[in-house]
Amino acid sequence: MATTTDLAPGRKPAAARAARASSKAREAQLEDQVAQLQTDIKAIAATLARLSNDKVKEVKSVAKSEAHNLQRQAEHVVEDVQDQASALEKQLKDTIREKPLTAVASAVGIGFILALLSRH
Questions:
Q1: Rounded CA separation 24/82 (Å)
Q2: Any transmembrane segments, and where (predicted)?
Q3: Residue 89: how many other CB atoms lie within 10 Å
Q4: I need a labelling partner for 32 at 20 to 30 A (CA). Which of 50, 61, 83, 96 fits?
């Protein structure tokens, strides 16, 4: 007995056409899902970029604040050292004024020791 494909070789059976239509519908759904995934991934990437920028700004702010605090602390330390140096200088000048001969003898002694050390 002859089948429909035997009778009309150029025509496809209805089941094959239905399968092809179903396959195309699934391909279209899959393409839509891929497009949606791409959109979602782009949105996630944008969100991550915003979060990263926010964190970078926060870290920069903290770093600037800490740098400013360290600068102030360093200025205080420099001021303290300058004050101590000034006090030592004043004390040394007062001692020299009170005992000039002792100061000269000390300077000569220190010079002599340095001369001995520099020869070796």
A1: 85
A2: 100-118
A3: 10
A4: 50
| Domains of the chain by residue range | 14-119
Q: Left, alpha or beta for 8 (phi > 0: left; psi -120 to 50: alpha)?
A: beta
pTM of the predicted protein model: 0.46
Condensed to tens digits (0 to 9), the pLDDT of residues 9-54 reads: 555 577 778 788 888 889 999 999 999 999 999 999 999 999 999 9
Q: Six-digit token pair at 70?
A: 């360290």
Tokens of 64: 């600037």
Q: Which residues contact 75 (CB under 8 A, 6 or more apart)?
A: none
Q: Are 5 and 11 in contact (CB under 8 A)?
A: yes
Side-chain-side CA neighbours of residue 40 (13 Å): 6
